[in-house]
Amino acid sequence: MSARTAPPPSRERFGTAPTGSPGRRIGRALLGTAPIFVILAALLVWITIENPNFTDPPLFLLFLRRAAPLMVLAAGQLFVILAGEFDLSVGALITLVVIVAARLIDGEPERTWPVIALLLLFGLVVGLVNGLITTRLHVPSFITTLGMLLILDGATSYWTGGSPRGELPENFRQWGRLGIEDVPVLGQLPYAVFAVLIFGSIAVLILHFTAYGKQVYATGGNPRAAFLSGVNVSAVRTAAFVLSATSAVIAGILLGGFTGVSPDAGQGREFQAISAVVLGGAVLGGGRGAVVPAMAGALTLEAIFTLLNILGLESPLQYVVQGVIIIVAVAFAAFRQRTAR
Q1: Residue 2 dihedral angles phi and psi, to the nearest 5°
Q2: Structural domain includes residue 42
Q3: What is the span of the domain harbouring residue 68?
Q4: Is the dihedral of CA 50, 58, 267, 204 positive or negative?
Q5: 30-57 pLDDT, tens per residue?
Q6: Is 158 within the bounds of a domain?
Q7: SS3 state of residue 186
Q8: Local structure of 179: helix, strand or coil
Q9: Alpha-carbon gap, residue 38 to 72, rounded angstroms
Q10: Distance (Å, rounded) from C-alpha 22 to C-alpha 25?
């Protein structure tokens, strides 16, 4: 074909396709986020029908406290998925946080804050390693973070000899199981709820109100176009892995406080986080999603698990339900993309 008759390059391919009228953009946003809140509301109503005491403040706050680690983890995982990657190492990192904290602190309250600082620093290193291997060595993030998962699991098992040792003191466990007492109506307002609000607010601010957030969307939506427009794609993705690892450390602190020392503290949490993000309307492959719906997706998963327990169904069915959720959510996301064009 001659140069004269060659068709012009597709604007959509290079990320400059028009986005449509404001009304259409609002419609897309509602289509993408509204379903998760409808599902969550329906589940909460169902749980209340099965257990009328569920809406009592102590029980409902206990539900929020259980969901808090996954909500924080989903907010961090969202950045990685928006950037077009995966982070499968977060579950193993949660387990390491709980086991290492118990071993290093060993019931001595004065060691709590130095150990928490050390764990946050370690999370930063894990995120950097995941990001640099993925972006500099061009290893698919699925493989990179799967390898990191195995490294962290193996290192934790080797260090503990297969049996967790040590003790988490009260000033560590308070973040997962205590709160502000004597609050009118509520009784106790858990610290875990504050952690969710603070981390969620920071995530919203970063993703939706900063230049970096716009770069995350651009990188996931069309990395080639983002690179040509001057975005440092490698740095954006590496920072996303760091945020994800940081969320895993915080989730580990909350989970350790709530459940205590367990060698299975983070088992399966990586898939729950991905499920929550997808259920919240994010698209695997990047470029579409939001913080609040992702955290609502985590709350929805916890509501599903709570309902299954109330109905007396066996715990292995939770994994079946989780798999179905992923398939249905991804299929719906693909359908939504086709119909929204």
Answers
A1: -75, 165
A2: no
A3: 48-340
A4: positive
A5: 455 567 898 899 999 999 999 999 888 8
A6: yes
A7: coil
A8: strand
A9: 21
A10: 5
Q: What angle do CA 288, 291, 294 make, to 5 degrees?
A: 80
Are the beta carbons of 280 and 295 closer than 8 angstroms? yes
For residue 145, CA distances in Å to 103, 141, 153, 159, 314 come to: 25, 6, 12, 21, 30
Does residue 15 fall inside a structural domain? no
| C-alpha of 116 from chain center | 20
Where helices occur in the chain by DSSP H, the ranges are 22-50, 57-82, 90-105, 112-136, 141-160, 170-177, 191-209, 211-221, 223-228, 233-259, 269-279, 291-310, 316-340
The pTM for the full model equals 0.85
Distance CA 257, CA 154 (A): 23
Residue 81 is assigned to a structural domain of this protein: yes
- List, for residues 302-315, the tens digit of each pLDDT value: 998 888 888 877 76
268-282: pLDDT as tens digits: 899 889 989 988 888
Sign of CA dihedral 233, 238, 242, 247: positive
Work out how many domains the chain is built from and give that number.
Answer: 1
Q: How far apart are CA 295 and CA 256, in angstroms?
A: 20
Question: What does the alpha-carbon distance between residue 22 and residue 198 come to, in Å, rounded to a whole number?
Answer: 31
